Fold this protein.
Amino acid sequence: MARNFDIAIDNGNVMVKEYTNSFSMKLNDLAKELVQADNNIETPQLPLNTVKYKSVKEYNYYYIAVPQGPYNVMYGRRGVNAKKYLVYFPHMVFIFKFNKANGYVNTKLVWSSNNQLDVNDSSFTIPPLNNVHGDGGICTGTWNSGETPSQTVDNYISMFFENVFNDDISGGKRGIVSVASEQAALSKAGKTDMEMKQAWYSGLGTEFTKKFTINSFLKGDY
């Protein structure tokens, strides 16, 4: 008879939960058990830059980190006459929620202004980007999902940075142009990474400055 498990990987630790009981172990210990196992055990092939993974009931969750730093992005008002801007982004975490049955994927984006990324701390905020909704959902337009979670994640994140940013969801947010201009002046003045990231929050309301944990965010309690 098949045995059903949930599995979560977080900071080098593994939680394996059978529907009747649960236990935890180190990731290295799990790897040894898999090598020695008499029966076949299926484990996920995690996409690049996965910092957290969990399988709960009908969904697989992948937390994909994109490091802080300067990125070249295209911006055009209403998506036309686009120009390239160099913008400094904080640490970004894309949260992919895959439906096991039909492969449907829902994606949210949060980011952290801390210099060190920790997916379990309470430093996360909704990105004040003009292509991100107030609940962290991303306005993507058309994009191609992959045949595997890794391909889908790679395609999605590439699409995010390659698409033209616009002002379709601009209420109460700072635009790419004004942030890029302020950050260029800060960089010229030799300011720190933290000051570069804080440029995003100048004059924003609490809906973009309120901090939360990713767990509370996924539960809708933030």
Notes: Residues 1-43 form one domain.
